[in-house]
Write a structure and sequence with these properties.
Blueprint: E1 13-15, H1 16-36, H2 39-53, H3 61-72, E2 79-81, H4 83-104, H5 108-128, H6 132-144
Antiparallel strand pairs: 1-2
Protein name: DUF4395 domain-containing protein
Keywords: Membrane, Transmembrane, Transmembrane helix
Organism: Pedobacter cryoconitis
């Protein structure tokens, strides 16, 4: 992990390059929604984040696509711990669930702002390998003064 924030760990490694490609897919999907306003894109993101958050990443369309890209282009395996990425996916589930609900309730401006946040987080992960989930996790631990979350 390239950030100095304290992250959850589960000692299971995954390919950071694939994670970054998946984040790029989230970025492009979110951008596509912002350009088209097709509601089903938010639903797609919600399903994809949920699959990754509950350890079913092998079924995640964006994860499958990024895995295919890694294989086709022979992108090196760069190990990183899985837990921070699951935590980030849980944040993604929360944000897209709220965005989807707000959209259906007619609050398109609030939906827009939540999706801009997802756009920013996915951009940071994809381009700079900066895990916003790790930063949020550290802040939550600091303010709650609790033991690490069991992921």
């Amino acid at each position: 992990m390239t950030t100095s924030a304290q992250c959850p760990v589960d000692f299971i490694t995954i390919n950071e390059n694939q994670v970054r490609l998946t984040a790029g897919g989230v970025f492009l999907s979110t951008l596509l929604y912002l350009l088209t306003a097709y509601w089903w894109i938010i639903l797609f993101l919600l399903i994809d984040f949920t699959l990754r958050a509950v350890n079913k990443g092998k079924l995640s369309p964006l994860n499958l696509l990024s895995g295919l890209i890694v294989k086709i282009f022979h992108i090196n395996y760069k190990p990183t711990d899985r837990a921070p990425k699951r935590f980030a996916a849980k944040i993604g589930v929360t944000l897209t669930f709220i965005a989807f609900g707000l959209l259906w309730a007619g609050f398109s401006t609030l939906t827009f702002y939540l999706l801009i946040l997802i756009l920013l987080f996915s951009f940071l992960e994809s381009v700079f390998a900066f895990c916003a989930g790790c930063l949020l996790y550290s802040l939550l631990r600091k303010f709650s003064k609790q033991e690490p979350l069991d992921l």
